[in-house]
Amino acid sequence: MGYLAHALAANARAYSDAGWEQGGRFELTFEMLFLVPGCALLALLPALSTRRLPLLLAVPVLAVLAGVVHWYFAAKGALAGHPGDSGRCGPDNAPQWWPGWLPA
């Protein structure tokens, strides 16, 4: 899940050419070093807890994990107000394939 959020944000930035300079790529790569293991640990918690606890207790942990991915994709993918040079996106730097239910 962490890598998926990183890949979606990186593809959105590369498509709009906003935040895709050397510093922007370094930022995403550096954050991925913490995002992927953090999401993996968070996903491991339900697996360990379901051995002794009911499966319903794993649902809130997975909901938090999905919320982290949703927030990261929305916050880091389309950088509103950042100058983009590709000409394929509007002023909000959201690509055409950007989901409408995610804020840009």
Could you characterize the architecture of this molecule?
The structure is a single chain. The chain starts with a helix and ends in a 27-residue tail after the last helix. It is elongated, with a radius of gyration of 16 Å. It has 104 residues and is an all-alpha fold. The model has no long low-confidence stretch (mean pLDDT 75). It contains three helices and no strands. Helices cover 61% and strands 0% of the residues.
Short description:
The protein is mainly alpha-helical and 104 residues long. The chain contains 3 helices and no strands.
Structural class: mainly alpha
What low-confidence regions span 5 or more consecutive residues with pLDDT below 50?
none
Helix percent band: 55-70%
**Number of helical regions:** 3
| First-last Cα distance | 20 Å
Question: What is the global morphology?
Answer: elongated
> Helix and strand succession?
HHH
Largest sheet: none
- According to DSSP, the number of beta strands is 0
| Strand-residue proportion | under 5%
Evaluate the radius of gyration.
Answer: 16 Å
Average pLDDT level:
75
| Oligomerization | single chain
